[in-house]
Design goal:
alpha+beta; Peptide Deformylase; binds zinc ion
Amino acid sequence: MAVLAIRTFGDPVLRSPATDVQEITEIHQRLIADMFDTMRDAPGVGLAGPQVGVMERIFVYEASEDDSGVLINPKIVNRSGETEIDDEGCLSLPGLFYPVERSTSIVVEALDEKGEPVTIAASDYKARIFQHEIDHLDGVLFIDRLTDEDRRDALRALRDQALGFPSVPVAGHGEDTF
Ligand code: ZN
């Protein structure tokens, strides 16, 4: 078991788009195992490559006890017009929870850990995790998707954290960290 260091806000890897995995090697098999260990240790329900400094399009998720997996080179090929607003947190932005609007249902095409193509229709919580993690692969953070007021609040809390001030309580606490 290996728990990797999770990069946090301010680290430029979180703002750089990741590139497609060209070939799935033994190094990726080890990375996937380590990413699961890191996600479960945190604990979180999703973890993307850039969050552990790997600039490849890969993420792991655990939507529930019996629904976990890894997606490589994921692409959203369809999304519902319907959206849903719910609280999100991020392992790379510890302590912040804010409501984010996401598509209720999406269809994702990707490769599994063996390199086999998979198509997954995800809705609700799982769709939210996938959209959050795919954003990470594009260098997008959930604070980019907040209302102006919440974003100002989040950036103020992050600035205070960086300066070493005690964490300011923020509106909308939740438990789910992606
Ligand atoms: Zn995140």
